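ugh ok so i messed up the first submission bc i forgot one of the chains. this is the corrected input, ALL of the components this time, i swear. 433 residues overall. if the numbers dont match what u have on ur side tell me asap before i send this to the collaborators (the ones from the other lab, u know who)
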Amino acid sequence: MIVASDDTIFSDALRRLDKAFQFADVDPEVILRLKYPKATMQVAIPVRMDDGSLRVFEGYRVRYDDSRGPGKGGIRFHPSVSLGEVKALAFWMTCKCAVMGIPFGGAKGGVTVNPKELSRLELERLSRGFIRQIADFIGPDRDIPAPDVYTNAMIMGWMMDEYSKLSGQRVPAVITGKPIPLGGSLGRDDATGRGAYYCIKEFESRKGWVPGEMRVAVQGFGNAGQSVAQLLYADGYKIVAVSDSQGGIHNEDGFDIPSLAYMKNESRRLEAVYCNGALCETINADRLTNEELLKLDVDILIPAAMENQITIENAEQIKAHVIVEVANGPITSQADEILNKNGKIIIPDILANAGGVTVSYFEWVQNKAGYYWPLDEVHSKLRAIMTREFGNIYDLMQKYECDMRTAAYVLALTRINEAISAHGTDRYFSGND
Ligand code: NAD
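and heres the new structure output, hopefully the right one now
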């Protein structure tokens, strides 16, 4: 196979292309092209700290492929952000937008920083500084950022404001996941978790699951992890373990998820509590590490934190029957083989967490039209798209007798292939686009 980079995470991400190519009826040159990001930008962001000192942060933006439309993908603030990671995330965005049939290519950005160490003003200066550096690289019809790990609506608002100042006009469609008063869409906040929830509901109806009998573990209790846990809990699923970067808690009776979420969001601590209004009482729970959480004997495991969590080291010890990849890339390609051999069902990231980018697409449409939709319209449109593409992937999985991830990549490749060939022969002769 051709590997375009020696970055482990990126080359591992590309392995999925080779596997899907065995089934997909696509031009081999499309596969070759998809092994290289179209454009990458690396920037230095000087930030004046509150104590008067200067720090310089490194940031990246990668536009992976724009055959199907402008680049689309989040911005991550995390100490482990690297160019290889951003390229892998941008590649996954390309496939995800194709899987959902929304008119975007793939992109991603990130800044290597621990945002927990910054004051709010420092965070705002960093966010605005990053946008100033990448302003010529993004745009509402070129490349549209959104939130990802440790970035949120407030940060998207600052970024849109900075871009608008540079443009001399208000440009809400340059970024999605904004606060509602700045042109955000209703329903964007929980869209990623909600999309995963709709996928689980599709499995529930096909397999005849009884919610009260399903035990669930969630790794990562942030935006996406909390949302999917809340929706499953409301349907009667038992959430028996949750974790954050500091570790997790476990109780076989299941947790009251709104109470845990209240505590986590108010105090930034993950505590086993039951809350009545603002009064929270500690309840019994075991402490466990993130590694132990992954190996719990549960029905559904939801990795909703970071990539590379299930690897060749621990894949044999995974007991959950179903794994729903709410995080991007939580399972390496080698671990995938082991899990498939052991009969595990994996709902792949490019489907399971695509609710976020789908409602980001709705936000962009609303910004361009200047007309905003009620929440029930956002939910019903999201459900329709998730259900349609889940069904398409399920059918391909049965047709090719392959795993669900391979089926999702077959669907993505087919759509990207169609778009590239629809552009005509110019690209063939010049190699340019
Ligand atoms: P977030 O910052 O809101 O939450 C991340 C959570 O993960 C936090 O609870 C944090 O404590 C925890 N965490 C961090 N490192 C961890 C570790 N090593 N082990 C266990 N927990 C850890 O981020 P988010 O937006 O919820 O994103 C989570 C995942 O979902 C990421 O992989 C992201 O790329 C993916 N995702 C997010 C969106 C979105 O719209 N936010 C969309 C698609 C995919």
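quick check: The first strand starts at residue 39 and ends at 48. that seems consistent at least. Residues 147-150, 192, 219-225, 243-245, 290, 304-306, 326-328, 353, 356 surround nicotinamide-adenine-dinucleotide (CB under 6 Å).
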